[in-house]
Design a protein that fits this description.
Layout lengths: L2 H12 L3 E2 L1 E7 L2 E7 L2 E6 L2 E8 L5 H4 L4 E6 L5 H8 L25 E13 L2 E13 L6 E4 L2 E4 L6
Antiparallel strand pairs: 1-9, 2-3, 2-6, 4-5, 5-8, 6-7, 7-8, 9-10
């Protein structure tokens, strides 16, 4: 792919608003988090979720080999958590953010949490598509979601009709 196309594609994708999630797994026995917007439900029967992790990310090797991982959907009040888990080159141990349940993969104040067992990991370009079978779901307080758009975090108003 030529460099101009990469730049334009990156800019185009920044204009697709996405909910912010922090995927969690264990590294050296401690909960570790990675911020992402590449996350979606994959199947309802059986319940499955899909996340995408960059091959160059330190934690990726743990996600594609783990038996259990979590996905936490963040509230608009959790920008600090999203920024912490997205810092390049720093350890992203989540002890200060986790709710201590289940298996320390759930983060405090997340609007929802999904615990998964690894189903498969598929190599695709510079990422892995990681598919998890949903084993447990936790619902937090119904709060405004954190959204990422044009390389920044935003809150979205929830309207009822």
């Amino acid at each position: 792919m030529n460099e101009h196309l990469k730049i334009e594609f990156r800019e185009a994708m920044s204009r697709l608003a996405g909910g912010v999630a922090v995927a969690t797994t264990f590294i050296e026995g401690r909960p570790w988090g990675v911020t992402m917007t590449s996350c979606c439900s994959l199947s309802m029967d059986p319940p499955m979720i899909l996340i995408c992790v960059a091959k160059h990310n330190y934690a990726t090797q743990f996600f594609i080999k783990c038996s259990t991982f979590g996905v936490n959907f963040l509230a608009d009040s959790q920008t600090d958590v999203a920024e912490f888990a997205s810092r390049k080159g720093n350890a992203k141990f989540m002890e200060n953010h986790n709710a201590g349940e289940p298996k320390a993969l759930r983060l405090k104040n997340a609007v929802a949490f999904v615990e998964c067992t690894l189903d498969s990991a598929i190599s695709a370009g510079d990422h892995y598509i990681v598919i998890g079978r949903v084993e447990e779901v936790g619902l937090g307080e119904a709060a405004k979601p954190l959204v990422y758009y044009s390389r920044d975090f935003y809150s979205v108003a929830i309207c009822t009709m």
